[in-house]
Design goal:
The protein has about 475 residues and is mainly α. It is built from 19 helices and four strands. Helix 5 crosses helix 6, helix 7 runs antiparallel to helix 8 and helix 15 packs antiparallel against helix 16.
Amino acid sequence: MDKTKYISPFSSRYAGEKMQYIFSEENRIKTWRRLWVALARGQKNLGLDISDLQIKQMEKNLDNIDFVRAAEIEAQTRHDVMAHVKTFGEACPDAAAIIHLGATSAYVVDNGDLIIQRQALQLVRTKVLQATDALASFADEYKALPTLGFTHFQPAQLTTVGKRACLWMHDLLLDLEEIDFVLGSLKFLGSKGTTGTQASFLELFDGDQGKVKALEDFIAGEFGFDAVYPVSGQTYSRKVDSRFVNALAQFAQSASKFAADLRLLASLKEIEEPFEKAQIGSSAMPYKRNPMRCERINALSRHIIAQYQNTANTAASQWLERTLDDSANKRIAVPEAFLAADGVLNLVINVAGGMVVYPKIIHSRIMAELPFMATENIMMDGVKRGGNRQELHEAIRVHSLAAAHEVKQNGGENDLLKRIADDPTFNTTLEHLTAIVKPESYIGRAKEQVDEFLEGFVRPALKGLEGEAQEACAIRV
């Protein structure tokens, strides 16, 4: 690796090998060449003077790409597409005359981008399911473990550790819906020509409009697209890129929320992200276990969300049938959004599959708050034992304030139950009160909700993982 030049962190640190290859120059140019072959094959089928020899020569040289030669030609022509047209032609001399016939640059650039971005979003989809799968196992394991709920990051009613994980999964399932919508509604640009009128192809086919339309349908079918966009300028609408990156930004919101929650829980010492035996948490403080992976999720997610603004602004600023101020921005914003999403997904899968739970800390925090939350139950129990509801209410109010003072002012433990047990008004014992204040009695339907959610929503979605090749999500922290 050349240390004298800038190297993108997406290549050196964040994105996985599969996503990097999808946006590699090799994959891009191979896709262009496949598009040129499909164009020629379709034109031959529809009667143009193109031979089997020419097509076979093109097919034989799909992977025979001389990038050095292409760079030399581009330096002369200042045109990347024409540089590769000429390079491909030099590799296929018999076919040189018919490569890119009737097409404009957008034919390979835009159709190629649609193919590549579809590949990338399909990989994102698989990894969102992997992350969901990891969280599903975690939720099932801890579905009945009570934990203190928080609203406004203030202690609230109890939930369970597994139920909280379902909140994270629910966001991912919403993201999956968005991804499936984008993939399901995606169309091909096809062969539209310089201003989208297909004039060059109409001329090639001597005015036969049926053949022009048939060519477009043939090429789309070659790449697994069911339809083409019915109208376009020279390029497909840049709102399509905005849709892609919006789906990634939706996922980034979910991932960032998950990571932020885990950072809060790590600070409370309830749940931590994985931490390797030799990992260093701080250069200055050896004892620290900083949530570095979750912090990186937050950082990269912020970048993805910012890239959505990029694609939205690009779509908003296009002129008439074509303008080139999209190109430089699009080359950066779209791939980086996907590469960042891949990096985030690798981290989410890693963290979700290795979270460390500390039940005793969780229980201790519950018991510091639960006596206050259980006062209504204690009061009702006192009434059953012959007490006066109004007198009991006032006694609990006084004892609660005293116990809160002990905790906040003196740093002591919550001794509310002992104060109530020592008060003859309640006619009870500490043992009886402790039995009343069992965390499991205050989690509502949290456990059942986890079971219902996993069975009714998560496991059906996870069937989409069956048969999918899954990349090992190695991370570099």
